[in-house]
Amino acid sequence: MSAPERPTTRIPPEAFVEAWQASASVSEVCLRLGLGTSEKQRRYLSSKAWHFRRKGVDLKKHPQGNKGVYPNSIDWPTLAQLAKDVGGEE
Q1: Between 20 and 30 A from 13 (CA), which of 49, 51, 72, 80?
Q2: What is the dihedral angle through the alpha carbons of 29, 33, 34, 37, rounded to the nearest 10 degrees?
Q3: How far is CA 16 from CA 45, 60, 77, 83, in A?
Q4: Into how many domains does the chain fold?
Q5: Of the candidates 25, 24, 20, which has an alpha carbon nearest to the alpha carbon of residue 51?
């Protein structure tokens, strides 16, 4: 297994901590920091959080996987109705 891919731009530790604590998932952290949400990016940020925790920074734990990209921000029933209205079943 190869090492997680690091972003090409340096993420200031303060920006990382703020994004981590304000997010509901690792994918959301990626979005807040302007990174892609690829598995490699998520793994990189997860290992960065692990390292920070080992150094005594009390970061919250996020769910495993790609959960929470859209935490409570999507009105699913409205989207279901929109899909019926726009693409209706034939």
Answers
A1: 72
A2: -30
A3: 9, 12, 34, 37
A4: 1
A5: 20
